[in-house]
Write a structure and sequence with these properties.
Blueprint (H helix, E strand, L loop, with lengths): L2 E2 L7 H13 L5 E4 L9 E5 L6 E6 L12 H16 L3 E6 H6 L1 H10 L5
Parallel strand pairs: 4-5
Antiparallel strand pairs: 1-2, 2-3, 3-4
């Protein structure tokens, strides 16, 4: 479940990362993917193919005081989500805005996808 990312990104950070993926010629991810049936968790980027099973979550609002992900309940939800994903066989990577802009996030994804480092 999800949509091809090229169709509609949710943020400028997602758009920037998608452009990096496209420019690098990496396999196209799925946006807002629901990896665990019966759960409402959505993941920013997913490569669900059996040879990858990779999730990338962009943590773009870590410095925003009112971000739902930074509240105590939001942090607990994220911990539950990431643990559930790992227990269901997913490789979960998390990246900040700085990691996307520096290319570090792309390098991590490349390594998991077996495409080497830039």
């Amino acid at each position: 479940m999800g949509r091809a990312i090229g169709s509609n990104v949710d943020s400028a950070l997602e758009a920037a990362f998608y452009q990096q993926v496209k420019d690098a010629g990496l396999p196209e991810p799925i946006l807002q993917f629901i990896p665990v049936p019966g759960r409402k968790y959505r993941c920013d980027f997913a490569w669900p193919q059996d040879e990858y099973r990779l999730i990338l979550e962009l943590e773009g609002s870590i410095y925003v005081a009112r971000s739902g992900h930074r509240s105590a309940s939001g942090v607990v939800r994220d911990i539950e989500k990431y643990n559930l994903l790992t227990l269901n066989g997913w490789c979960v990577l998390r990246a900040t805005t700085a990691m996307v802009m520096s290319g570090e996030a792309l390098d991590m994804v490349r390594q998991v996808l077996g495409e080497g480092k830039s």
